[in-house]
Amino acid sequence: MIFYGSNSSHLKSKSTRQIPCSNCKESSKFNIEIYGKYAHLYWIPIFPIGKTGAAVCTNCNTVFEPRQMDHNLKLEYKNVKGEAKTPVKHFSALFIIGLLIAGFSFSSFLDGKNTEDYISEPQVSDVYRFKTEASYYSTMKIAAISDSIYFKVNEYETNKRTGISEIDIAKNYSKEQYGYTVEELKGLYKDKIIYEVDRD
Q: What's the DSSP call for residue 154?
């Protein structure tokens, strides 16, 4: 079940100058309270959705909503409302989402950097993820390194990148070995055929 909706938090309180009250007809001060409304998801604020408030006559304790205020009180109310700042916490979920996106982008950058480093300095048992000519995905594992880098190729393919872990099993690799130079591997990575290298 997804819990979402709206809520509000107190932003500002201020006492006004003496103003005639439309209820008790006395000239008195009003206490103005301003609240910030926000949308939330699982009680975490996502974004602000405006401000609201009310004014209370200190003489008769009558509460006036904005639509009930006369001209003078409404001017005071608008001034206080304008002074009330929306708190950063009302954007909490947006900040969290922004941090997650930034973290994911940084992680992707590091993965790309690691892959380049692994291709430049290969090690036995490195697993190369690659895209086939038929737009499927598979792997090949370094079996030996001498004048060239020798791979055993996975005999299975998957139609999605996330399926790689299901086919990356020792018994799925061929006994035959195929040799590449580092430069050839760099070219395959540049052409986006090899897209990731896993190293234990």
A: B
Nearest to 192 by CA among 148, 110, 142, 133: 133
Tokens, residue 18: 């003496």
Question: Given phi > 0 = left and psi -120 to 50 = alpha, else beta, which region is 111?
Answer: alpha
Q: Which residues contact 28 (CB under 8 A, 6 or more apart)?
A: 18, 19, 21, 57, 58, 59, 60
Cα angle vertex 32, ends 75, 28, to 5°? 80
- Name the pTM for this structure: 0.50
Strand partners, 2: none
Helices (H), ranges, the chain: 71-83, 92-120, 164-167, 182-190
19 contacts 29 by C-beta, under 8 angstroms: yes
Q: Which tens digit of pLDDT belongs to each residue from 89-139?
A: 887 777 878 888 877 766 665 565 688 889 999 999 999 999 998 899 999
Structure token digits, residue 119: 């291709």
Residue 61 CA: distances (Å) to CA of 21, 22, 23, 53: 10, 12, 10, 15
Residue 140 makes CB contacts below 8 A (sequence gap 6+) with: 127, 128, 130, 151, 152, 153, 154, 173, 178
